């Protein structure tokens, strides 16, 4: 089978064809910061060579009984060798490829899982329509769930095991083998101290086995096993030991020996913290923070009171989120981005998974209904994460909504002052409002002709893909239609906007890979990205005041140093003074974000981590230079720090020095625990106290300060999305 060309190949072919026709200069004249988005996109849409070269190849990712059986058979080999991690992975893949029943509307109409009508109904109005005309219609699906339940039993994931057994029965698991699954389910119930339920199940299973009238030699082993379990249930004394060992959760909070042996399968996506006092105008923002504006900085966030290290500043579920198509699509839920131990498949394609029935139904009546048929083609184009996110933003928003709102947003961009863009008519900046994403800065005025041309071709290709899906251009009645030229220009130019504003504003979504063999080797891995309107209001610093932490699809911004009232709350755009030299940082920031960084580390050329000193030198509160502890004075400002004066910009250096030594000793103890994997609140508080006292009294930069912030970030990473692994990373 031929491999579909990626976007870079298509783009190279376009450039080659334009060069051959000597049209490069002519085409370039239509692109530039002075040109409107609509004019640039309309030009390329009218360009015959673009339609010839930038045509996506439509690929199929449907179900396959043959592939499902191959993956299940391969999984069986690993299961017999007790390589449970690999067996589970293969069984999951087998379930994804197995043919699945269609979903139907509650009125009985049969619907294809990607039928256009699905995009206009609610999840509560969708149900499965299982064809019972043949016993083995969904045999591969039933066998996949059954085999996966065997792995889950051994892992102690009893609730998930029961669900898979019920799924196997639901999709037509062979009746002759029902007793095997009944025995497995009874073991789960016994392990959960549900002996009465187990007894009822075993009795009904024995009756069902008798009803099959099987040859005694064929049913004896099954019958004996069921009777043995039934006898166990009927005993007056239950095995407390089994139930205690059995209890298991999705993610370990304490790392017992038993848990360590099963960590390869353990993960957690906990609920994010809540904002105790949200900002009245920006609900995803803390009331401790306000929005500010200046011509030089644009919009930025500022502390409205003193903020301590560790405080929650933003809790935001992005307007739209996507997984990386090449690495995370088959391990994480496409809806909430949680890692899935036992995923549910899309009923139509074999590309995506869902963590629950709720996430699956939500996906099928919204974004996935529109992307399902073309997702393999989008992945093959390999256009980069921002293109995938732009595509998701549009299909999630829908053509109908875009047609109604984008013209309004265009007028807002012309008529409103910059600081008010993104706020609705009620003065609210809502993360769930597409307006907050559309109005993010594009840096169009700074972009070169070649940059604008390529981004326009990306928008062109995505528009072609939306056409090919036959699921995007849908009218109010749920029926597809052929878009007009005006419809194409609206959608294409909107995609063009996002091809410029997402590279400057999209945020990565991560998951901490916790290496329990060596916690210091734990690394944060990017699994996707999202459009977050509030987080995009933060400016960059190479010594950021805050850091982001992922909780599935929710991002949380926390202070990682003491932030005095009136001080800007900065984030890092990927550059940090401790890692890269100043010239390298400035060059990278200019290339992607079009600004010259003037933060303190860049202005003062702070050294990188390896060159930092660990000596804690007390600073002058006026000029930030080190004070002379022999004289108790600042050599520059001549301020006294012996405590002999009551000046506000002064302190008793001996008293402060004693406090710092105590804080440092407490921090050292906390640091040792954290690197050993002990993430207690007490350890967090010790690190925060040390960071705060350094911020107030110690000259920066300092190696211990850098290490303390990294320890605090690791502590908070451990509270978010995690995947626990044993192997060396």
Description:
- The chain is of the alpha+beta class.
- Among the domains are: 1-60 and 339-506, no CATH class; 65-100 and 138-251, Tetratricopeptide repeat domain (Serine Threonine Protein Phosphatase 5, Tetratricopeptide repeat, Alpha Horseshoe).
- 45% of the residues lie in helices and 10% in strands.
- It contains 26 helices and 17 strands.
- The strands form 6 sheets. Strands 4-17-11-12-8 form a 5-stranded mixed beta sheet, covered by helices on one side. A 3-stranded antiparallel beta sheet has the order 2-1-3, with no helix packed on it. The chain has a 3-stranded antiparallel beta sheet with strand order 7-15-14, with helices on one face.
- A hairpin with a 2-residue loop joins strand 14 and strand 15 (554-559).
- The radius of gyration is 30 Å and the shape is flat.
- The protein starts with 6 loop residues before the first helix and ends with a strand.
- The relative contact order is 0.10.
- The model is unreliable at 106-121 and 241-255 (pLDDT under 50).
Offer a quick outline of the entry.
This protein is α+β, with helices and mostly antiparallel strands.
Which quaternary structure do these chains form?
A: single chain
The largest sheet is:
5 strands, mixed
Question: Any idea what the radius of gyration is?
Answer: 30 Å
Number of helices: 26
First-to-last CA distance: 35 Å
Quote the beta fraction: 5-15%
Question: Which parts are unreliable, with pLDDT below 50 for 5 consecutive residues or more?
Answer: 106-121, 241-255
What is the approximate shape?
A: flat
Quickly give the structural class.
alpha+beta
Helix content: 40-55%
Tally of DSSP β-strands: 17
Instruction: Record the strand order, biggest sheet.
Output: 4-17-11-12-8
The average pLDDT is 89
